[in-house]
Amino acid sequence: MKRKDFFLFFFLPFVGLILIFFLASYLNSSRIQKQVKGVIEEQLRASAGILAVGISHLLEEGRPPDTVLGPYSGGSGIYYIALLDAEKNILSWSSQFEGYLPLSLKDKDLPESWTIDSPAGKILNLFVPFSAAESQSYFLYLGYSLEDSLGVIAARFRKSLALILGILALAGLVFSRGVFLIQARYLAKTREADAERLQKEHYREISAFTAGIAHEIKNPLNSLALLFELMQKKGAAAVAEDVALGKNEVQKISRTIDQFSDFLKPLRLTKEPLTVEDLIAGASSSLAAEFPEKKAAVEYSPGAPLRLAADRQLIVQALFNILKNAVQAESRNPVRIDAEKTKKGIKIRIQDSGPGIPPAVIEHIFDPFFTTKTGMGVGLYLAKKIIERHEGKVTVESRPGQGALFTIQLPGG
Amino acid sequence: MTRLRKILPLLVFLSAAHPAFPQHPGHFYNVDTEIKVEGIIKDISLEPRYKDRSPFLVVTLEERLSKDIYTVEISPSWFFGEDVHKGENLEVTGSVVSTADRGKILIARQIRFRGETIDLRDRQGFPSWRGGPDRKGRRRGRRI
Question: How much is the ipTM here?
Fold first, then answer.
């Protein structure tokens, strides 16, 4: 999936979800605000009732009406307060704003409560009837600021909304990032698997082609070998030596073709319990036999025994092929080997200090019949095939002038 | 009980609030008694009003036709940035309060002066110098 597709299929829907949530919250906020306002109004009405009781007590005590509002004027949230008699004449009043008492008595039937908009914000007006001494009727007129209560609730709501949106956005980013990483990893593995499949197909084609050629060559070679056999028995003595030479060459070609055929055959493993030390010792002795002039071609210090189950002959063959390649690249210093146990199994590293492998070569180094020296170019191919048949992995790293490092990963340990 | 617990802090606060300031019962901006008066400025003074916050510009106005005298409360002196002179013409829209001791008091909401209209309060009597959401008590209100 491309970045653009990822954006379209994962990121945009998530952003859409957040927007829907935001829109729903926004649309719902007016309903919540209305409900909250209702609760506040109810609470303020209750407190106004209690104020009326307090004032009625003061009136019953004989306090003059123009003084009873004193303790209640200028209170927090009360913008104005007025005391009216039964005929709705104002007896006393107080306001936080100079002379501001927005009460119109033109309408005889005043509601118990109403809200007005003012430059100081929304004000809840309450008109509360009550009675005091000698059953005299009064009215208490109050203007409560709704801005403080609603403002606090609105601020809390905005804060909560911002917090939820922030958490959602963060979760979305983490989720999107996670999906993107999983997708990228999956894509990388898919590409790797595709490349491996193509390589295997390529090898199969080469194998089929080579097996066909070997078969086609082997039949006439057998006839030639028989012919040389007859000529040896019935031929003239003068050409006996030449016939023997010819027979020898034909047999050599036949052996080479047999070797080819062996490479192309699927490997059959006969696993047995082994240690890495045994395998390296086996490969080293084979190397010493191949290069008798190099007295100390390999440098290896065995540590604790590393155990694995493998086909001894094949793994020794694989190690030998890699060591041979390293020794051929390195003429003076010994090739260093070290082995260790890892989480995935056993890791064997073979490091030479030769001239290194050019980048153009390194990408084909495990290809069959690829060589920069004399020989068939199947050594490293066979080593890789053997290691992979053991469910292992072999990689090579090299920088010009800094030698090459072959890393073999095998299950076990 | 829960409701009482909620409003208890409010009541405690209210009981500790400032003492009342003496106000004439009718001395507020009564929207029901709004009138328009045009006359000549007879006197100008600065007088304390409304809890002595700041001196108010008060003018004595003689109505042009009836010759009735009105004590016109304009605004705090800091808010009204014009020089007013005796003998000038003034048109006032405001709430009238009739008192026994000081005659007719006119709380100005809007005045027309030297060809300019100056808003001092809104239609409900909210004072313009006390600001609001978008006017933080600055010298405002003038329009031509």
Answer: 0.77
